[in-house]
Each structure stands twice: as structure tokens, then as C-alpha cells.
């Protein structure tokens, strides 16, 4: 039997009539390679230990932007990204004392619909299928983007919405400055 989160995602797809052409779980023989590539491209790995939260271990090889939110962020996805773009969705949950990681492949529009429907999901990560950017929503209600495109999209959104003081933009060419409330990121 699948853990709760995996069941909730499947229920959301059924209830919303989302086809497997638009959103599907990654097969077990594919998710490991996607996970490896994502961690190697965006995260610092220490002592061969993968971080539970990718946003907390970014390697800062790409521009990074974060936006503190006080609103429901899922509807924002199709504003920041092309709704037809295919992405990987990464979610995790604790099941019987063990972290479980689930990877999905879908369009931004389908991912947004699933995320809006699923109960009890307080963190998620989207990864561009070309590994050019990563977007995380954290349990601290912060959107964190790594990669030129998504960092720029977050910056533009912040400007348009008047949220500039809440945006932290770190071009890859500048020295790393820790985000507020975080120890040094290097």
C-alpha cells in the first residue's frame, strides 16, 4: 500500500481528470537518474549525505532568488512558468519513520492543479527537465528558485507585486551571502 501522499496525488489526478499524458509518477527505473542529476546540479552534498530539503543545501552555482510568501503560492506557478512546459515534481513525506521521496513528470498546469488539490503538502520542488532551474516551496512559506530563468521570474513577480523587500537575489558571480535566518551558505 502506498503512503498517504502518494495516494493523495493519485486521488487528485482522478478527481481532476488529469491524464497520464499531462502528469504521471516517474517509473522507478527513471527517478533515480533524475534525482542524481538534480542533486549534482543544484545541491551541496556532504559526506555522501543527501539533504532532505534541497532548498537548504543549494550550491549557488546558479543565481538564486527567494520570496517570502503570505499567500497561496500554487496558483502562481502558471504565472511564473509556461503552463505547457514539462517539469519534474519532487515531494517527500515521512512514512513509518522513514523519508519517502516521490518524483512525477508533468506539465506546469497539471502540477499546479495537483498541488492545489493535495491535502497536507507543505513542501515541494519543481525541476526543469533540462536542469536549468529548480523551484522549491518550503515549510517556511518561502519560494526559493535556483537558476537564471526562475530567479529572474521571481524578481519580476516581486517587482510587479511590490514585494521587493522580501526578495533576495544572489547572482552566481557575487560572493555568497546567507539568506536571513540561515547560517553561512558556503
Key traits:
25% strand, 186 residues, alpha+beta, 30% helix, disordered C terminus
Protein architecture, described:
The chain has 186 residues and is an alpha+beta fold. It has one domain (4-170). Helix content is 30%, strand content 25%. An 8-stranded antiparallel beta sheet has the order 1-4-3-5-6-7-2-8, with helices on both faces. The longest helix has 15 residues, at 28-42. It is globular, with a radius of gyration of 16 Å. It starts with a helix and ends in a 16-residue tail after the last strand.
What coarse outline follows from CA principal-axis ratios?
globular
Helix content: 25-40%
Beta-strand residue fraction = 15-25%
How many domains comprise the coordinates?
A: 1
Estimate the mean pLDDT confidence: 80
Structural class: alpha+beta
Q: Determine the N-to-C terminus distance.
A: 41 Å
Amino acid at each position: 500500500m502506498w503512503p498517504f501522499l502518494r495516494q493523495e496525488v493519485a486521488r487528485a489526478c482522478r478527481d481532476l481528470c488529469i491524464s497520464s499524458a499531462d502528469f504521471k509518477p516517474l517509473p522507478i527505473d527513471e527517478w533515480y537518474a533524475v534525482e542524481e542529476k538534480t542533486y549534482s546540479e543544484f545541491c551541496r552534498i556532504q559526506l555522501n549525505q543527501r539533504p532532505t530539503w534541497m532548498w537548504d543545501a543549494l550550491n549557488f552555482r546558479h543565481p538564486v532568488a527567494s520570496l517570502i510568501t503570505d499567500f497561496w503560492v500554487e496558483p502562481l506557478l502558471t504565472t511564473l512558468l509556461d503552463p505547457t512546459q514539462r517539469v519534474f515534481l519532487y515531494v517527500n513525506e515521512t512514512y513509518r519513520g522513514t523519508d519517502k521521496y516521490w518524483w512525477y513528470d508533468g506539465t506546469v498546469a497539471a502540477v499546479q492543479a495537483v498541488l492545489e488539490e493535495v491535502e497536507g503538502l507543505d513542501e515541494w520542488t519543481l525541476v526543469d527537465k533540462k536542469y536549468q532551474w529548480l523551484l522549491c516551496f518550503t515549510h517556511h512559506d518561502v519560494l526559493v528558485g535556483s537558476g537564471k530563468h526562475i530567479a529572474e521570474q521571481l524578481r519580476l513577480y516581486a517587482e510587479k507585486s511590490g514585494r521587493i523587500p522580501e526578495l533576495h537575489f544572489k547572482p552566481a558571480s557575487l560572493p555568497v551571502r546567507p539568506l536571513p535566518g540561515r547560517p553561512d551558505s558556503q
